[in-house]
Amino acid sequence: MSEEKVGNLKPNQENVNVTVRVLETSEPRTIQTKNGPRTISEAVVGDETGRVKLTLWGSLAGKVKDGMVVKIENAWTSVYKGKVQLNAGNRSKINEANDGEVPPADQIPTNEPEAPYVPQKRSYGRRNYSKGFGGRRREFEEEEE
After folding, report:
1. Vertex 64, ends 62 and 67: CA angle to 5°?
2. Long-range contacts: 104-108, Cβ < 8 Å, 24+?
3. Which of 44, 80, 137, 145 is most solvent-facing, going by the fewest CB within 10 Å?
């Protein structure tokens, strides 16, 4: 099981394992998702390569506290406002780790992994026609007289 460094996180990774220090936390709150209400909490975590926002879903919400060093297993990444975010949910594990594995909070750089800009395809309510207006293209030949 290989471990990632925060500075190397990329968008849409799965099965991410990291050991990080918790720098800031928020209280759990309930949000509305397309699958109904979910409980989440957010934290900023980091290692010697940078810091990243961590969203804890469901039963993991509120599980980490400021200053803790934790090993997060089976997390995944997403992108929000051009920044890579780390997520941990019901298939993830969070365990306390050895304090010496990650530098103290004041030695963790402030840089965050960024997502490369990929413009979203927009249809503006139109169907995806390859060319023209969907009518048949007819070839006209000149008639000989």
Report:
1. 140
2. 104/21, 105/21, 105/23, 105/46, 105/67, 107/48, 108/21, 108/23, 108/46, 108/47, 108/48, 108/50, 108/51
3. 145
CA atoms within 13 A on the CB side of 8: 8
Which pair of tokens denotes residue 21? 């220090």
Residue position matching structure tokens 């139109």: 126
CA within 13 Å, CB half, 65: 1
Name the residue ranges covered by the structural domains of the chain: 6-106
- Residues 39/80, Cβ–Cβ less than 8 Å: no
Domain range 6-106, CATH architecture: Beta Barrel (2.40)
In tens, the pLDDT along 101-125 reads 999 999 999 999 988 776 666 555 5
